[in-house]
Design brief:
The chain has helices at residues 2-10, 17-34, 45-57, 86-92, 105-118, 130-133, 154-161, 180-193, 232-235, and strands at 74-78, 97-102, 123-127, 143-148, 165-176, 195-202, 211-218. Strands 3-2-1-4-5-7-6 form a 7-stranded mixed β-sheet, sandwiched between helices. The chain has 239 residues and is α/β, with parallel strands linked by helices. It starts with a helix and ends with a helix. It has 9 helices and 7 strands. α1 (2-10) packs parallel to α3, α3 (45-57) crosses α4 (86-92) and α7 runs parallel beside α8 (180-193). It has one domain (2-235): Vaccinia Virus protein VP39 (Rossmann fold), CATH 3.40.50.150. β1 (74-78), α4 and β2 form a beta-alpha-beta unit. It is globular. 38% of the residues lie in helices and 21% in strands. The model has no long low-confidence stretch (mean pLDDT 95).
């Protein structure tokens, strides 16, 4: 994990030997489970360190001052898949309270196994869809931070994620390259969901290319009708 440790230091994250060992165990578990199910197309040791682990840790650039890390901070990772970016963030910042949401039930078996093996406290794995869970009283407008690495247009991501953000919380969406057209298309969805674009933050790490963080603050409650029923936000984004 020397590649990850050196690159993480450039993000201002100094990983301890224990955290290094946790990342190593996570890598080994990811590769082993990937033989049974499709968790990732990237399994090369060096590539995973950069394209999965470092990329996940870059989300921490969205939080400055006293906002991060915060022992009381709650983070929801929507469509987490193999636990990215949630698990790497939890390893690096163990104080956070992490919830991993994944709609594919068999992937949650992997996530639960990793949470146990890595000894991650204050971590919950939920099998379910964002469109449904966001209408649950115990999860709606409940989280300080919502992250998503999911491959979807920003207008769709905004509808699936902002309902989970508490007022004063924020969404961090990981994107790549020129996203101005996508941002423009998502403005209506942002307004409806109670979001306001805070900034687009270039990660600025050579290994991650043109990676960007789109940071959206939750400034107003999300209307009760959103998100719409399962599948609709992807099929018919609010444009």
């Amino acid at each position: 994990m020397q590649t990850l440790m050196a690159a993480a230091a450039r993000l201002g994250i100094d990983l301890s030997p224990q955290q290094r060992d946790q990342f190593q165990l996570y890598y080994e578990g990811l590769v082993a489970w990937n033989r049974r199910m499709n968790l990732t197309a990237i399994t090369d040791y060096e590539e995973v360190q950069i394209k999965h682990f470092l990329d996940s840790l870059s989300v921490s650039l969205a939080f400055k001052g006293n906002y991060w890390p915060n022992p009381q901070l709650s983070l929801l990772d929507v469509g987490t898949g193999a636990g990215l970016p949630g698990i790497p963030l939890k390893i690096a910042f163990p104080e956070i309270r992490l919830t991993l949401l994944e709609s594919v039930a068999k992937k949650t078996a992997f996530l639960n196994d990793m949470v146990r093996r890595l000894g991650l406290g204050a971590t919950e794995v939920i099998a379910g869809r964002a469109e449904e869970l966001a209408h649950s009283q115990s999860h709606r407008e409940h989280f300080d931070v919502v992250t998503s690495r999911a491959v979807a247009v920003l207008a769709t991501l905004v509808e699936l994620t902002l309902p989970f953000c508490k007022l004063g919380g924020r969404l961090v969406a990981q994107k790549q390259g020129n996203i101005e057209p996508e941002l423009e298309q998502a403005r209506k969805a942002m307004n409806i969901m109670g979001g306001k674009l805070s900034e687009v933050c270039p990660v600025g790490v050579e290994e991650l290319g043109g990676r960007l963080l789109v940071i959206i603050d939750k400034v107003a409650p999300t209307p009760q009708g959103y998100p719409r029923r399962p599948g609709i936000p992807r099929k018919r984004p609010i444009l």
